[in-house]
Automatic annotation (TrEMBL):
SUPFAM superfamilies: PRTase-like. It comes from the Bacteria. Coiled coil: none annotated. Signal peptide: none annotated. The lineage of its organism: Bacteria, Pseudomonadati, Bacteroidota, Bacteroidia, Marinilabiliales. InterPro entries: ComF/GntX_DNA_util-trans, PRTase-like, PRTase_dom. Belongs to the ComF/GntX family. This is ComF family protein.
């Protein structure tokens, strides 16, 4: 008897499973087909894309001018109150929706692949949480983003090369200077191989850039690699 290919069984199995346990779109609650994940194609199309990945002088890149040397920086979506992206990131950070992190990471990776401005990364580094916050939350949302990106790009990620040594207060209500003061010298980095020439630093949302600036500065003390930045959300002020 000819063995049955697992690749042939999988679509059939997933089809049967979806009858009894349908996967629903996070935004509109419609049934997802086997090619869709987390959001249906219609809802993805209506997400508030920034299109910054094709603009070398986009607002996110400009945040770091004169502050820290960044090869390129971009955000995937506008992060605005009451919109789907804000709710997805909120569920990821505060309600343990880990699938959301992997999904958003894969979306961000596709943006990086389609852009001519991002150097292809040798290493993906998530902005780390302090160990106290890690204990409270149980996971680092940026690490989930990095893992999703790694799956699509085929580049490794390292969630331990950068460490947050200073526990800071919530940044939500702070001004740009207060945010910078809150994270100045907050990060340290371990040894990075000299073979690593391009690092992609990943975070969920950028507002003033203070946290990313501090983490990028720590990476630059440990490595001569060029650093690029990608975030899911851009919270314009």
């Amino acid at each position: 008897m000819t063995p049955i290919s697992l690749n042939k069984i999988k679509p059939w199995y997933e089809g049967v499973l979806s009858i009894f346990y349908p996967q629903l779109c996070f935004a509109c609650n419609r049934n997802l087909n086997h090619a869709e994940e987390f959001l249906c194609k219609k809802c993805i199309v209506h997400l508030p894309r920034t299109q910054f990945e094709n603009q070398i002088d986009n607002p996110v890149a400009q945040m770091f001018w004169g502050r820290v040397s960044i090869a390129f920086a971009s955000s995937l979506f506008y992060y605005r109150k009451g919109e789907v992206i804000q709710e997805i990131i909120h569920r990821l950070k505060y309600r343990r929706n880990l699938h959301a992190g992997l999904f958003l990471g894969r979306l961000a990776a596709r943006m990086v692949k389609e852009s001519n401005l991002f150097p292809f990364p040798d290493l993906i580094v998530p902005v780390p949480l302090h160990k106290r916050k890690m204990r409270m939350r149980g996971y680092n949302q940026s690490e989930l983003l990095a893992r999703g990106m790694s799956e699509v790009l085929g580049a490794p990620y390292d969630a331990e090369v950068a460490l947050r040594q200073v526990y800071g207060e919530s940044q939500t209500q702070k001004s740009r200077y207060e945010r910078w003061e809150n994270v100045d010298e907050a990060f340290i980095c371990g040894e990075i191989s000299t073979d690593i020439r391009n690092i992609l630093l990943v975070d969920d949302v950028v507002t003033t850039g203070a946290t990313i600036e501090a983490c990028a500065s720590a990476l630059q003390k440990a490595s001569d690699a060029k650093i690029s930045v990608v975030t899911i959300g851009y919270a314009a002020r």
